Amino acid sequence: MNARRIFSSSRGAAVICVLLIGVVALASRSAEAAGPTDVPKGEHGAATMEYQSKELDRLVPSVDVSRAPLGFDPVVWEAFMPDDNALTPQRVALGRKLYFETRLSADGTVSCATCHDVTRGFTDQLAVSEGIKDQLGRRNAPTTLNVALLQTLFLDGRSPTLEHQAKLPIVNPIEMGMADGDAAVDAIEDDEEYQVAFWKAYGRNVNYDDMGRAIAAFERTLVFTDSPFRRYLAGDGEAISVEAKRGWVLFNEKARCVSCHPMSPSNPLGTDNRFHNVGVSARHQDFEALAKRALAALQEDPSEQRLDELALSTDMSELGRFMVTKNRSDIGAFRTSLLLNIGITPPYMHDGSVETLWDVMDHYNKGGEANLFLDGGIEPLALTEEEVDRLVAFLFTLTDVRFADENRRQFERQKAQARENRPLRDNEMAFRLKLAFEK
Ligand code: HEC
Ligand code: HEC
To answer: I want to staple 369 with a disulfide (CB 3.0 to 4.6 A). Which of 80, 190, 200, 282 is the partner?
Structure first.
């Protein structure tokens, strides 16, 4: 049975499923989580692959592929597993090796773990990612935590499966920059360790499709849903603070976050897996002109690789879901973000333009950014400062307890920054003393 069907049938529309920070802050960050005073840095500012690998051993000491992760119904978990890629220890081990493999990039400096760094909440904690030759993209790297539970991949949903997704960064010119799948195979196929590992995992020689499969298998072991909030919902009344409990009430009522970010024991990710324009890219785009250009570009070359390039390295990135569906109503729409582990994956939004969770709240409080395609669910919320603090306190309870140190450090860091500067705060808009069209 297909996961999509299970979720839509059992839970209706609510389907399952979450600055450039000062270099100094980054240096101290994962050090705290790991214990030692410093994290050894490799290429592009990411922790070295060796260090990340050790950190991963600490976070996931063993993997039992025969069991559903904590809190998951085995039948539901099974439904997420594609027929041709059942989880085996050999596949997970191969995928893990490939995840850290810099030889899969054209200049040998970039692996998946460069941008989805184990010591940084499996993202890079940068506004937008840096790939080979220090090229910057247009999008913020989402975490690879819990991607096993998503219905589509990428912020515009342009990839249907983890297996499919994992092959794209390898050949994207500004990410890992391999000419094609064959070039990726060439890069590692002489390595005897890989030859053995591919045979053990899939009974075949080194090949590009199995690379995607193995990486996907590894990603399915990165399920991190054991947050204090989960424990609270499971009956532990002490798991979260009184302030966070008040934030949870606001989340469901006055702030209406729940309409797009459903959160429940059976739906832990906090996304409806749908696409909405909440006004982030509207800050600096002429959507109509951009959409015309995008249609022309997509007509000229409709391949999925071209779409990947347009989304990652041009202004058209801001069109979001429109690039996939070409529906006008999808202009500027992005997938509702996962809220699990949100505390440790700043900065926020598809372009990394929002630095702290206080700023995220300011964005919503003033009714987003007015534009023709703004989702009807986004309007001024009239939240007081106290209410904003409560919502933020709640959001910080959504981080898996294994990242508790980093979560605490982020809370303090973001709080200090928010005390200094709240660039998106606009109380006149939030309390409707001024209306969007008067701006
Ligand atoms: C240069 C940085 C970079 C590298 C290298 C990179 N990624 Fe990403 N990753 C990103 C960015 C940026 C996005 C968001 C792109 C988008 O949504 O259009 C992303 C998105 C994803 C997603 C989708 C997550 C979601 O929420 O939908 C997954 C899964 C993922 N990457 C896994 C990988 C894997 C596996 C590799 C290695 C084969 C890899 N990435 C290499 C930057 C990178
Ligand atoms: C109309 C649907 C909708 C509503 C209502 C909504 N969100 Fe969102 N949320 C989204 C979408 C879509 C994104 C991604 C936007 C982007 O990347 O441009 C998002 C992004 C976020 C992010 C950033 C996540 C990240 O990793 O970058 C946070 C945090 C968040 N929302 C929290 C909230 C809170 C708290 C509320 C209630 C005040 C709320 N949202 C209300 C749809 C919604």
So the answer is: 282
